[in-house]
């Protein structure tokens, strides 16, 4: 135990010392230009969004603020970045970052209260954001884009797609071999389908606890049995008598080659595949009622940033209607604001999926759900 503590202390100390050479925020006195640093992580499409669209657009109307992008592909530096942020705030020092956009870092930082609390006073357009999303991070960050799991179907063979989960389940049994979903531990689209079936069999208060994770108690998971039994009963009607592909992309490939006619998919991945003609035009997308789960990408401001007003200016700009429309266009996803605040033509373009989405289970319950699905459904 002593060795573990020593190693942790050394790591934190090194993270803190690294702050002096982080190349963080600066103000150029002669030009009056302030440079703020944005840390972001994810796939290359996220990097391109910042580098090729958002930062250049912001600069057009804010000549006095430069944005330096520090990008970590696939989040390989997220753990070290959170350690650096935590050490800086503990020492009341600048973390060398003025904005952070990373699912892992932002959620941990919000929970640890390492970020600046945000209100409509500092970020007026925050009033366009769904309160339920802000509650996920206790108003320590702003959702600027999102994605949701939706139902994809082949319109050549399906004239009237199912509108509810019960309709989907009935369709699966009436059309054996034409539907599948990826194993939930290999992608969010499969996880969303499993959660939807489990959730449909739960009372409202139980659903809320599994989502919030406020009370983690594995014994509560006995309430999942009706949903897991229902998923097991579908097995013989699933593609190839129970073939669950690995990953979201594999499901899209089965849709593309006609092996299946219906499946849950991520909205952004499917829309991108349609635009790039990797999916046939006959594949259409709809959201169920109640909807599948989805999730926003949050961006926040470190508490010890030396340029908080400039960072808040950027966040407010990011929530503007035209900028949100650009985010949707580039990422083929959802806006961070409510749909009513994006241009009408964009709403019409995404009308089939422009709805609210459900929230996923808390991480511990989600991990348990994946394990139980594996033993009771796939292996049952």
From TrEMBL:
The keyword Signal is assigned to this record: yes
Superkingdom: Bacteria
PROSITE patterns named among the record's database cross-references: PROKAR_LIPOPROTEIN (PS51257)
Keywords for the protein's UniProt record, in alphabetical order: Signal
A Pfam family recorded for this sequence: SBP_bac_8
InterPro entries: SBP
Record flagged with keyword Signal: yes
Residues making up the signal peptide according to the UniProt record: 1-20
Protein name according to UniProt: ABC transporter substrate-binding protein
Biological source species: Reticulibacter mediterranei
């Amino acid at each position: 135990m002593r060795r573990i503590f020593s190693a942790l202390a050394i790591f934190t100390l090194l993270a803190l010392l690294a702050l002096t050479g982080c190349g963080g925020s600066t103000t150029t006195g002669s030009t009056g230009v302030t440079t703020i640093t944005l840390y972001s992580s994810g796939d290359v499409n996220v990097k391109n969004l910042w580098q090729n669209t958002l930062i250049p657009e912001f600069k057009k109307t804010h000549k006095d603020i430069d944005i330096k992008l520090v990008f970590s592909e696939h989040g390989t530096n997220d753990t070290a970045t959170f350690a650096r942020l935590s050490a800086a705030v503990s020492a009341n020092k600048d973390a060398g970052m003025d904005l952070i956009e990373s699912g892992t870092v932002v959620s941990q930082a919000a929970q640890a209260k390492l970020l600046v609390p945000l209100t409509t006073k500092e970020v007026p357009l925050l009033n366009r954001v769904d309160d339920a999303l802000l509650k996920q991070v206790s108003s320590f960050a702003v959702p600027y884009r999102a994605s949701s799991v939706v139902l994809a179907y082949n319109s050549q063979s399906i004239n009237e797609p199912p509108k509810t989960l019960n309709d989907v389940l009935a369709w699966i049994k009436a059309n054996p071999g034409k539907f599948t979903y990826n194993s939930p531990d290999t992608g969010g689209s499969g996880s969303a389908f499993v959660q939807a079936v489990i959730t449909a069999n739960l009372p409202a208060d139980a659903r809320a606890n599994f989502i919030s994770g406020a009370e983690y108690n594995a014994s509560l998971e006995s309430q999942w049995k009706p949903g897991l039994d229902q998923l097991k009963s579908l097995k013989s009607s699933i593609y190839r008598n129970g073939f669950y592909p690995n990953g979201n992309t594999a499901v899209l490939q089965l849709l593309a080659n006609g092996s299946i006619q219906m499946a849950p998919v991520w909205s952004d991945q499917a829309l991108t595949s349609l635009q790039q003609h990797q999916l046939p035009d006959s594949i259409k997308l709809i959201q169920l009622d109640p909807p599948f789960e989805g999730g926003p990408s949050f961006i926040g401001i470190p508490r010890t940033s030396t340029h908080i007003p400039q960072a808040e200016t950027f966040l407010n700009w990011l929530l503007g209607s035209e900028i949100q429309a650009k985010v949707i266009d580039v990422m083929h996803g959802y806006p961070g604001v409510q749909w009513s605040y994006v241009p009408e033509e964009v709403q019409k373009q995404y009308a089939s999926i422009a709805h609210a989405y459900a929230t996923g289970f808390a991480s511990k319950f989600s991990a348990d759900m994946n394990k139980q699905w594996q033993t009771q459904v796939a292996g049952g």
